[in-house]
Write a structure and sequence with these properties.
- The protein is α/β, with parallel strands linked by helices.
- It has 3 domains: 2-60, OB fold (Dihydrolipoamide Acetyltransferase, E2P) (Beta Barrel); 85-113 and 237-397, Rossmann fold; 120-220, OB fold (Dihydrolipoamide Acetyltransferase, E2P), CATH 2.40.50.
- The protein contains 10 helices and 22 strands.
- The strands form 4 sheets. It has a 7-stranded mixed sheet with strand order 9-8-7-10-11-12-13. The protein has a 7-stranded mixed sheet with strand order 18-17-16-19-20-22-21, with helices on both faces.
- A hairpin with a 5-residue loop joins strand 2 (7-8) and strand 3 (14-18).
- The chain starts with a strand and ends with a strand.
- It binds S-adenosylmethionine.
- S-adenosylmethionine binds next to helix 6, strand 17 and helix 8.
Length: 400
Amino acid sequence: MKVKVEKLDNFGRGIAHLNEKIVFIENALVGEEVDIEIKKETKKIIEGKVLDYHSTSPKRIKTLCPHYYVCGGCHLEHLSLVEENKFKEAKIKDILKKFADVTIPINNIIAKNAYFYRNKITLHVKNKKIGYYQDKTNELTEISNCPLANSKINNLLEPLKTLARDNDIEKIVIRSSNDEKQILLNLTGHIPNYKSILPLVDVLIINDKVLTKKSFINTNIGSKQYQISANSFFQVNKELTKNLYDEILAIVKENKYIKALDLYCGTGSIGLYLTDYIKEIIGIDYSKSNIIDANKNKLLNNSQNIKFICAKVEDVITNYSNIDLIIVDPPRAGLDKKTIKTINTIEPQSIIYVSCDVVTLARDLKILKEKYYIKSIKPFNMFPRTYHVECICHLILQEN
Ligand SMILES: C[S@@+](CC[C@H](N)C(=O)[O-])C[C@H]1O[C@@H](n2cnc3c(N)ncnc32)[C@H](O)[C@@H]1O
């Protein structure tokens, strides 16, 4: 069946129409005429797979990754980075308009390299083969390299293949410092013959047992130093995180904040980035590992005016008042209702909302907009070649 792609959906899939149904097609760009095979059909939608291209878009590029069409980890490798950035700006605009009636300009997405930006990857092993599980399946795509990961990580894949042959590995997490000098390897499985990998890593952890002197790696964002353990959260884009944090810093520098909350603080990375410009900061995160690292990071950066609390944000946020800035950086699920309600009661002068999911951002802005006006929304392409995009939204308390 031949269809013509009219636009892209929020997941980067082509949208067309057939027999009054919407057709979603992976790897199909606007304007392309394609023959499709129907993979799934319901009363309203069809999911199609391209069998043949009658015409291709000038925006289509040759893919770098040999595994792109089977792996499923990336969604937009067939589109140029310039067009990917335009797609992400338009996606943010559309979703915010549709779900929160936000109409302020959103452009100038900050983006750097399309490839080799990740400082962490998670791989699985099946039948001694190392790779990624295809989206929502048990099918493993064996990989020889991953062009999203930095070269320090990619260099470890060949030795890991040998290790996988000699052991029963289940899961592999590789994390490098942003300068690619240190590497942490966290393995799960039955791995008695691990000695060959020891000289190649700074930290080796097998089934939660630390087998090296160090249990963490040291990394940095700008001039700030961070120690990161295997189970702690850290931003994955080794280059663009500095730009993201600099944007938050620029907002902070414009104002004189006295007391700030850094909610969902991870290892304290945002709060610590701001300690020279805010009198007192309290970071909250529910992960023990994150808070242990955050307290070490406080010492590493000699920051006296920040403290960290290990708790669920929604359980402790009601304890706070007289706060003039609240920074939130929640997971994709966004803020829960109680947290938003309490933020609205605390009435900080400013909110900086760092979001990795624009749909939940829109849902939360719809409520926050009752008391706050949106001063700016800046997009950051933290996850090139995928449909994911990050934003920083600055909200200011409306005067009555
Ligand atoms: C997107 S990360 C942000 C981390 C940090 N701001 C950064 O830039 O590295 C989200 C963090 O929220 C934490 N988290 C998720 N749900 C939480 C909750 N209900 N209460 C407290 N922390 C939570 C996770 O442990 C994770 O560290």
